[in-house]
Backbone:
């Protein structure tokens, strides 16, 4: 998966470096073009700032589960006053999804957003299983790039709505393709996915709550503190 991402990133970067536009990107890139391409990333969102989601949209609720003991480790790993951080362009997309949901009487609650590499390493050390936690040796998680977000559906007052599982459930029930018999849960999963996909995110088959910006490969890892003024 990771190498697929890198390969995709390489060709997108190359296409951009060659000046291929959105329209012509489908044209094959020749070996001569590859050799002639400047080794410089022309299109990149590397400098796009990290922002607090609630400053972009104060109607979005959040409860960072890793700042509580309500996660699969059963203990707190983020500092108490951690901020809910994402790349600005990604937070703006979340705002779009929120607007779609609010028109239907619902909204988003974030369970995890930016996750520093040290925190991801802790998750991995506790559960070194690539089915559940992306291996740090293979690039870790897009959460560390500020482009992935874990969200659930709430009502306008922030009350969590019935969903297939709780956060970080590693069973088959957490698959985004809900096959249970509860019509309300099925509708909620569909509602959340539709809003997120419409806003520019892609979902994950094994975790109904996990979404990544569809252009995630243009970004890069981030290293910053979760707390305002925190050290790292
Ligand atoms: Zn996630």
Residues:
């Amino acid at each position: 998966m990771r190498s697929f991402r890198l390969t995709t990133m390489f060709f997108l970067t190359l296409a951009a470096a060659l000046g291929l536009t959105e329209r012509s990107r489908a044209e094959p890139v020749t070996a001569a073009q590859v050799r002639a391409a400047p080794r410089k990333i022309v299109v990149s969102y590397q400098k796009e700032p990290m922002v607090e989601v609630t400053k972009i949209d104060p109607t979005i609720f959040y409860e960072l589960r890793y700042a509580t003991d309500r996660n699969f480790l059963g203990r707190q790993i983020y500092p108490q006053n951690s901020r809910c951080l994402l790349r600005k362009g990604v937070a703006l997309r979340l705002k779009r999804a929120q607007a779609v949901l609010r028109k239907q009487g619902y909204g988003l609650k974030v369970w995890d957003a930016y996750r520093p590499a040290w925190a991801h390493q802790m998750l991995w050390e506790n559960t070194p299983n690539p089915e559940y936690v992306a291996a740090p040796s293979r690039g870790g998680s897009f959460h560390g790039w500020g482009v992935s977000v874990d969200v659930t559906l709430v009502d306008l007052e922030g009350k969590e709505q019935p969903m297939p599982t709780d956060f970080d459930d590693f069973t088959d029930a957490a698959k985004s393709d809900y096959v249970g018999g509860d019509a309300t849960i099925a509708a909620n999963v569909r509602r959340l996915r539709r809003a997120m996909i419409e806003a520019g995110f892609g979902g994950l088959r094994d975790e109904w709550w996990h979404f990544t910006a569809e252009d995630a490969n243009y970004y890069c890892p981030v290293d910053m503190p979760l707390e305002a003024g925190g050290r790292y």
About this structure: Residues 53 and 91 are 6 Å apart (CA to CA). Residues 112, 143, 148, 150, 210 surround zinc ion (CB under 6 Å).
